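Worked example 2:
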Amino acid sequence: MKLLKILSILAIFTTLCGCSELKTTTQMPNPWFECNDNLAQAAKIAGFKFPLILSNYTVRAMKDMVEITYPLDENRYVTVRKSQSEINGGDNSGDYNKYPQNDVYTLDNGVNINVRRDGNKIFVMYFGAESGYFSARCEQGMSYKEVEGIYQVIAEAESPKLPPEAN
């Protein structure tokens, strides 16, 4: 009799549990691989080299993109990205904020840099070249002089592959 009660309770429990729908959520896996300061590892993951000459940086990569973050000063960091294919009209920055001004800033050497800004604070810069698509973003904003400096860091790493007017 006791066994019959236990089996009955077990049958009811199994029936009730079997009627509920099991809901699972599936999330897209994070495509980024943390590479710390290992540019060679990032190159293997992305499929190309991005040999920026920096100190005190971190790098991460995914297929077709390398991202390097380094201090712009003691309070701000800049994140520079390189991809081989065009993303979002050439803006591979990953910054989807809307800024009041979207312009083209021409460097002294004739290279055009697309900038997204608010007044004199530039939050995103991006441009395309023979060797890929490049961007830099800084949450606190950059000056025009800092944009030129970031371009020079990229140009030093990519000089044989940038447009002729860049040299």
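The first strand starts at residue 33 and ends at 36. The mean pLDDT is 85.
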